[in-house]
Each structure stands twice: as structure tokens, then as C-alpha cells.
Amino acid sequence: ISGTIVGIWTPEMFHGVSVAGYHLHFISDDLSFGGHVMDFIIDNGIVEIGPVDQLDQRFPVQDRQYLFAKFNVDEMREDITKAE
Ligand SMILES: [Zn+2]
Q: In Å, how far are 5, 6, 25, 39, 55 from 34, measured between CA atoms?
């Protein structure tokens, strides 16, 4: 399959804001398949690396469902641990 992997490496001290270590996501060229990457082998490709010196986090504050949602933080933490 051909596509693009985008990822970041986060220092341990920022775990929680992001996932500590490498965190990679994939999207296929035809945009029909993608998600979190657990492992991969590259036949050929281009690797680009650069520093990230800022994080811009936005929230959907115009969305009433988001504003009044009852989040179960423990369940969310468990789901993230399983997925990542
Ligand atoms: Zn992920």
C-alpha cells in the first residue's frame, strides 16, 4: 500500500499532552485507509525530519455536544493506553 506516515516523537516529560515516544499515523494515497501505526516496512520513500517547537491545541467550543459532554476520564485514559 502506498501512502504517507506522519508522526512525532514526544519526550517522556510531555506524556499526557501527547504520547511519549514515537507516535505515527498513516493515510493511504487514495485516502481510503489510515490510522495509528504500530509497525511498518518501507520499500522506498522520502523521509523528512524537523523540530517542532510549539503545540497549538484547539477545542470545538461552538459545539454544544462537546461543551456539555460528560467525559469519563478513567475510561478515556484506558482506551488511549490500549490504542497507543
Ligand atoms: Zn495514534
A: 9, 11, 7, 13, 23
Residues bordering ligand 1, an ion, CB closer than 5 Å:
36
**Distance in Å, CA 19 to ligand 1 centroid:** 8
Q: What angle do CA 6, 22, 61 make, to 5 degrees?
A: 65
pLDDT tens for each residue of 32-80:
999 999 999 999 999 999 998 888 889 999 999 999 999 898 998 888 7
| Domain residue limits at 60 | 3-83
Domain count, the chain: 1
Tell me how far the alpha carbon of residue 74 lies from the centroid of ligand 1, in angstroms. Answer: 18
Query: How far is the centre of ligand 1, averaged over its atoms, from the C-alpha of 83 (Å)?
Result: 7
> Which amino acid is present at 55?
L
Is the pLDDT at 84 greater than 80? The verdict is no
